[in-house]
Design goal:
10 helices, 13 strands
Length: about 280
């Protein structure tokens, strides 16, 4: 199930400007965070991308997209009713097709020669259902991520069948229900921020949006848990690093991480050592 469409959510009022920030990528080129994401998507073979934005932001995002403006579809989310609702906004664009789902305020850096999105797409091409990238995460950070309970796929080192999905579990809940044999003690498999989802997800979201009461919001975790209960849903333990631009020093961490992975590594290391020497 290899998709040709992608959806990027960027309508969170608190984070709408993060994809527009400029950053130097691992090749030493200065681009917006949005263009860095689009570079990886289109290099991986995607053909078009829907970006979920707040009303009135289209021109800003078009400028930030660099050369990819003609491959983008902009969908305005007028009411901030949650992540699941933002994904649902792309239902007409997606139709019944599989699609890649990303958030606009995360950047990804592969630890192999294969980019993160390509790693996930390779798994998805061999599987008819949903695939979510996951990463081993210490229990002290469980309050930031959705976490999966899994069983290992026979013969695979990095693929798991998802049994349950829990949004930001407490360490106690995780220890009771989400332990994965083989992971370091106190670590669990949390969402990395890259998913390949199918039309069933949109159908389930459609039902939930129809039932929303005034003042309610809709996440995505509950829907993914229903998918896990009804069909084979894979988690892929990715070989990469995620940078959440919305966290404190998020842009700085992303900039340094990408610089250390690129051709100017020695220059950056020297600068960091000099900074450490003068800031004791």
């Amino acid at each position: 199930m290899k998709p040709i469409k992608a959806v990027i959510t960027a309508a969170n009022p608190l984070e709408r400007y993060l994809p527009l920030q400029t950053i130097t990528d691992s090749h030493g080129d200065t681009k917006t965070a949005l263009q860095i994401i689009l570079d990886e998507l289109f290099t991986a073979g995607l053909e078009s991308v829907a970006v979920i934005i707040v009303p009135g932001a289209q021109d800003d995002y078009l400028r930030a997209a660099g050369p990819y403006g003609d491959k983008l579809v902009f969908i305005e989310q007028a009411d901030p009713l949650g992540y699941g609702h933002a994904v649902w906004m792309a239902r007409d664009y997606v139709g019944a097709d599989p699609f890649v789902l990303l958030v606009g305020d995360h950047l990804y850096l592969s630890q192999t020669d294969q980019p993160c999105i390509e790693q996930v797409l390779d798994v998805a091409s061999q599987h008819e259902g949903c695939v979510s990238a996951v990463q081993s995460t210490h229990e002290s950070r469980l309050n930031l991520y959705g976490t999966v309970g899994v069983t290992r796929v026979y013969g695979s080192e990095n693929c798991f069948e998802v049994q349950t999905v829990v949004e930001k579990p407490t360490p106690t809940r995780a220890e009771q229900d989400l332990i994965v044999p083989g992971l370091r003690h106190g670590n669990y498999l949390c969402f990395f921020g890259v998913h390949v989802l199918n039309g069933k997800v949109m159908d389930l979201l459609d039902e939930k949006v129809s039932a929303l009461a005034a003042g309610d919001t809709l996440g995505l975790t509950e829907t993914l848990a229903e998918v896990a209960a009804s069909e084979r849903y894979l988690a892929f333990q990715i070989d990469g690093t995620r940078f959440n631009l919305g966290r404190r020093y998020g842009l700085l961490r992303a900039e340094i991480g990408m610089a250390l992975a690129g051709p100017h590594r020695d220059e950056i290391l020297t600068s960091l050592i000099n900074l450490l020497a003068v800031n004791k």
